[in-house]
Structures are given as structure tokens and as C-alpha cells.
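Whiteboard transcription, Tuesday session. T.W. wrote the C-alpha cells on the left side:
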């Protein structure tokens, strides 16, 4: 009997690349913050307490992976999460760790 794969193999390869990007606590924190509301780079810098260069680097990786979008308003960039469900594993793992 042939077993049906839940997803094609390429999906696992693509997902592994995304998981590499998500394997960073600051990027997970950014995504969880953006799940709640759109935020500017300046708001993220203040909330995260890290340098602008670091925030920008994390956001660039998240944009490249198509996990966030940016809306420009003059010189300011406002970031949104593409799909809030992306952070569900983070919340699930947090709940499991409390058991």
C-alpha cells in the first residue's frame, strides 16, 4: 500500500528554510509584536531594546522570507505580519513548557 504524503517534499525543504529564520528569539518577538499591531521601526527599537541596525537586519530577513510587509509613510516604515498564524507554534511551545 502506498502511503500518501501530507505535503510534497519541496514543502518540507521550503519550510526548513523558514524555520531557520524563525530560530532567533528576537525575530520571534518581532513577529509576536506585529501579530498584535502594525509597528514602526522606531517603536520596535524602543520595545526590543536593541540597536536600529539589528532591528533593520531582522526585518530585512523577515521581509525576504515574505513573513512581514512594510508600508511606507514618508520616511517611516510600518511593519505588518503577513499571517498571524505564523506565531502559533511559538505560543503552543510556550504553553507546553509550562506543563
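and on the right, the sequence the group agreed on:
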Amino acid at each position: 500500500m502506498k502511503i500518501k504524503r501530507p505535503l510534497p517534499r519541496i514543502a518540507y525543504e521550503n519550510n526548513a528554510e523558514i524555520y531557520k529564520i524563525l530560530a532567533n528569539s528576537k525575530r520571534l518577538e518581532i513577529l509576536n509584536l506585529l501579530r498584535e499591531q502594525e509597528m514602526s521601526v522606531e517603536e520596535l527599537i524602543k520595545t526590543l531594546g536593541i540597536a536600529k541596525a539589528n532591528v533593520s537586519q531582522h526585518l530585512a530577513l523577515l521581509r525576504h522570507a515574505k513573513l512581514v510587509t512594510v508600508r511606507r509613510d514618508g520616511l517611516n516604515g510600518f511593519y505588518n505580519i503577513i499571517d498571524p498564524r505564523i506565531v502559533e507554534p511559538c505560543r503552543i511551545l510556550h504553553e507546553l513548557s509550562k506543563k
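Someone added at the bottom: The beta strands are 39-40, 68-73, 76-81.
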